[in-house]
Amino acid sequence: MSVKELNIRNKKAKFEYHLEDQFTAGIQLSGTEIKSIRSGKASILEAYCICENREVWIRNMHINEYVNGSFYNHKPKADRKLLLNKKEIISIEKFLKIKGNTLVPLKLFLSEKGWVKVDFACATGKKLHDKRQDLKEKDDRREMDRAMKK
Fold it and tell me: Is pTM, for the whole model, over 0.70?
């Protein structure tokens, strides 16, 4: 079995949120879910994480149904459990108690052993003026790079 590189990212996350602590967690998946993810048929653009009963779950992560899955197929937008240490879960719960804080998935990838993992960050939402400032800085950097090339 060849392990190929997954490139499933949430590109909007850095623009929409101030990212603080980052975590890496495994995901509890069924057989058809892992096959769909390995073929690149997943999306985390609208996904977010929640904490319930000392467990962390990822919601709205879309995994397409497996083509050869027959009646064993999974639900595309089901909640999936994230596998974390107890200390990590406690720190995440403390962070989520503050109003306006959320957990945002950043990247879905395969580990060296072939397990599917997700990188997610504790985040707070940006205001409109923060987003404008980021765009202004990005344009300034681009112009400076152009000037340096010439």
Answer: yes
